[in-house]
Backbone:
């Protein structure tokens, strides 16, 4: 491939969502030549779809809020499996990242006193989500893009060229990471979607910020780009994934009409007063408050309703339990025959708020239901049900620098694991992107500075082999397979066998199906040529999805307990022994997934001291509690 177009950077960021752009801005501001690659159009990432808001304990709506309270909520939401250092950094740094965004040009909704407004969300003790109506992600991406452009203009003034220090390559998909002979990152191989031409990006540091894996499931809020590329690229380059069994099924996706099944209905509908009812009209969430949360949630509808006006003296409505709890409850109502006509439940805001207020607070939801389902949410309830939304598991990283175990490889945002433990709280992703995106940028800059003159060189043989694999998909084979058929089969199986409720026999069955799909994938043949060819692109994505799904299934089989985004019907309880275990997956020399148990990092004493002993007793083992008691005496 001597004729391949080549680009040189100090730092290469893969992904232009919130995490990638924040990392790129950091690397460029610290003076490094930075490239950004994204699979779709610049500005079209998951981040743009985020509706509800960004969690940061600024204390504007309730002065009692601070990083300690946010840390506690995050650990509770993740059922104490979070990497505690990540949860700490996130809670401490989120407010700075939100204020900083306004210096880039963002403008959040305001309180009457002119402060950044904050709204309620599931699992957050105080109103904490800074927002712009229900279009927060759009503002986030728009502002980060604006910052990128303003930095490029600075460079143009200084050097006469916009792209001397920061360049974005849109509609470009990375297929392989490249390493030097010493095993250090040396760059990435990508193709442009329009012409199907390959390009080599040489860079000693790569930040993976490729988002999630939702497209491996049939019903999902995610869009076409999210095929687990980052997780698979990391694995194949020698890095590790952790806790891939934890997948968040958002409780409220649209269930009707079929063409839009899975599209998200923001949690803000519940945060702003919307309630869930079954076909009998009952507010069923009161029946599903688990013991660990009992003391924080209302017992009666009256108390729950009073909470919206007077949160100091009343307990929260159970509709605002963490997402895993609400999703399981809806699943159960439907299973027991109390679902809505199209297999969901009813989410009603129309009887709770005046029409003009609904339109003001939830403009996108109003529009979405009118356009897609012909439902006026100011007049009638929505039908909603669980949808695959977010992956808590991901690439194992160092909390402070976002470094993976591969020299020169960093990861931030949804593609990284650890921060959210077994379940993410709403609003904690946008803040995660900015906090750890920035840290990954700094991590990469420091790594490159430490290299001095010893820059890693791309191995041409690796490039050749990678290009040959991709082009080999056009070759004729016996019993050819179509990539779309395989993708649909994979999505069906993941939804049915490794979905919201899991059982040993079914997960085993899924692994057998994955073996078969792997075999069939070897015979995939794509039609047409390299010019904008979605079938060919999907065939390349399939390799990533199959690998990542195997990691999800293996971890789901191994963890014999139920916690957060992993529910085992055959092991329904949360087990304190399992709280101490991270499941870590890597590839062996033959490319097979290896799974190991690894201890969860210890929670520092001062962080543990933020909790009452009675609360810790719900999560920690007796031995851990005694050790803590011993420390205190
Ligand atoms: P993304 O924003 O997903 O961006 C990934 C980038 O990587 C894209 O540019 C993509 O093109 C690129 N990419 C992927 N693969 C490749 C490849 N192989 N080569 C090159 N580029 C690649 N979170 C909140 O905190 N609050 C909310 O209100 C909220 N609402 C949400 C609503 C919806 C509908 C959805 C789907 C998610 C929501 N989330 C919310 C979650 C949050 O939006 C995502 O977790 C977050 O945006 C992920 O950001 P990211 O930067 O990690 O990746």
Residues:
């Amino acid at each position: 491939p001597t004729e391949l177009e080549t680009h040189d950077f100090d730092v290469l960021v893969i992904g232009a969502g919130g995490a990638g752009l924040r990392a790129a801005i950091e690397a460029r501001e610290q003076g490094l030549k930075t490239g950004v690659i994204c699979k779709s159009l610049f500005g079209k990432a998951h981040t743009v779809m985020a509706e509800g808001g960004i969690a940061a304990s600024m204390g504007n709506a309730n002065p009692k809020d601070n990083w300690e309270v946010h840390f506690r909520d995050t650990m509770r939401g993740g059922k104490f499996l979070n990497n505690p250092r990540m949860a700490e950094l996130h809670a401490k740094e989120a407010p700075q990242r939100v204020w900083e965004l306004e210096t880039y040009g963002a403008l959040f909704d305001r309180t009457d006193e002119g402060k950044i407004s904050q709204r309620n969300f599931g699992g957050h003790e105080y109103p904490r989500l800074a927002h712009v109506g229900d279009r927060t992600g759009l503002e986030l991406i728009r502002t980060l893009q604006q910052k990128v452009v303003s930095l490029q203009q600075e460079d143009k003034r200084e050097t006469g060229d916009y792209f001397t220090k920061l360049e974005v390559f849109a509609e470009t998909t990375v297929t392989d990471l490249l390493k030097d002979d010493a095993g250090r990152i040396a760059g990435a191989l990508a193709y442009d979607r329009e012409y199907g031409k390959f390009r080599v990006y040489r860079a000693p540091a790569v930040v993976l910020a490729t988002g999630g894996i939702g497209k491996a499931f049939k019903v999902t809020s995610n869009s076409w780009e999210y095929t687990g590329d980052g997780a698979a690229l990391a694995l194949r380059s020698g890095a590790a994934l952790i806790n891939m069994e934890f997948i968040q099924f958002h409780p409220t996706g649209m269930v009707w009409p079929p063409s839009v099944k899975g599209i998200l209905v923001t949690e803000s509908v519940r945060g702003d007063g919307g309630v869930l009812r079954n076909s009998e009209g009952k507010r069923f969430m009161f029946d599903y408050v688990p013991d660990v949360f009992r003391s924080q949630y209302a017992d009666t509808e009256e108390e729950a309703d009073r909470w919206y006006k007077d949160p100091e003296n009343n307990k929260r409505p159970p509709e605002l339990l963490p997402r895993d709890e609400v999703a399981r409850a809806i699943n159960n109502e439907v299973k027991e025959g109390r679902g809505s006509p199209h297999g969901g439940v009813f989410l009603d805001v129309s009887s709770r708020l005046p029409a003009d207020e609904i339109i003001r607070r939830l403009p996108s939801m109003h529009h979405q239901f009118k356009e897609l389902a012909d439902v006026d949410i100011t007049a009638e309830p929505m039908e909603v049900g669980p949808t695959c939304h977010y992956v808590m598991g991901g690439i194992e990283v160092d909390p402070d620098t976002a470094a993976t175990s591969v020299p020169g490889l960093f990861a931030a945002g949804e593609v990284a694991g650890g921060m959210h433990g077994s379940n993410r709280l709403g609003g904690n992703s946008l803040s995660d992107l900015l906090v750890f995106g920035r840290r990954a940028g700094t991590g990469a800059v420091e790594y490159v500075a430490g290299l001095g003159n010893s820059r890693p060189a791309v191995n041409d043989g690796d490039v050749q082999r990678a290009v040959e694999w991709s082009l080999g998909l056009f070759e004729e084979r016996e019993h050819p397979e179509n990539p779309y058929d395989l993708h649909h089969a994979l999505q069906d199986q993941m939804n049915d066998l490794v979905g919201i409720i899991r059982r040993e026999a079914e997960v085993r069955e899924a692994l057998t199906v994955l073996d078969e799909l792997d075999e069939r994938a070897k015979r995939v043949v794509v039609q047409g040529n390299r010019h904008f060819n979605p079938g060919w692109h999907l065939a390349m994505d399939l390799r990533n999805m199959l690998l990542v799904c195997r990691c999800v299934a293996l971890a789901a089989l191994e963890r014999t307990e139920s916690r957060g985004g992993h529910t085992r019907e055959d092991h329904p309880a949360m087990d304190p022994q399992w709280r101490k275990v991270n499941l870590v997956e890597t590839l062996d020399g033959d490319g097979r997934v290896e799974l190991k148990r690894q201890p969860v990092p210890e929670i520092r004493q001062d962080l543990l001291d933020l909790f009452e002993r009675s609360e810790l007793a719900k999560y920690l083992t007796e031995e851990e509690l005694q050790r803590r008691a011993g420390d205190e005496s």
The longest helix spans residues 534-558. The two ends are 68 Å apart (CA to CA). The chain has 20 helices and 20 strands. The chain has a mean pLDDT of 95.
